[in-house]
Design brief:
This protein is mainly α. It is built from 7 helices and 2 strands. Helix 3 (29-40) packs antiparallel against helix 6. This is DUF2200 domain-containing protein.
Length: 116
């Protein structure tokens, strides 16, 4: 799938998949929201608004209030690619989010996921 197709995907369509992945492993929607808000700077109302408006990933990240400064501490592999090596800035943000949800689903402690 090309980057442009990924960037045009509706965040609201992917969000339930993040939640399902986490819930399947005993985590909660609230924890998924906490991870997303930590990464992007959205508050609960802002996140809900982005989902309701069905914004695409490009807009979701472009409108994020304050991308977390500790994002460089996120390391590891998602879909066979090291997140720290992704060259496209927007794709890297998407992979950071994927990595955080993966860590949540794997049972990692929230304080370690939030790297702060």
């Amino acid at each position: 799938m090309s980057y442009e197709r990924v960037f045009a995907m509706k965040f609201a369509k992917v969000y339930p998949m993040y939640v399902a992945k986490a819930e399947k492993k005993g985590r909660s929607r609230e924890e998924v929201d906490q991870v997303i808000c930590w990464l992007t700077g959205y508050d609960e109302a802002g996140l809900a608004r982005q989902i309701e408006q069905e914004t695409d990933f490009r807009t979701f990240f472009a409108d994020s209030p304050a991308f977390n400064p500790n994002v460089a501490l996120i390391k590891g592999v998602v879909c066979g690619v090291r997140v720290e090596d992704v060259e496209d800035p927007l794709m890297q943000k998407i992979r950071y989010l994927d990595k955080l949800v993966d860590e949540l689903a794997r049972g990692k402690a929230m304080e370690k996921i939030l790297r702060g």
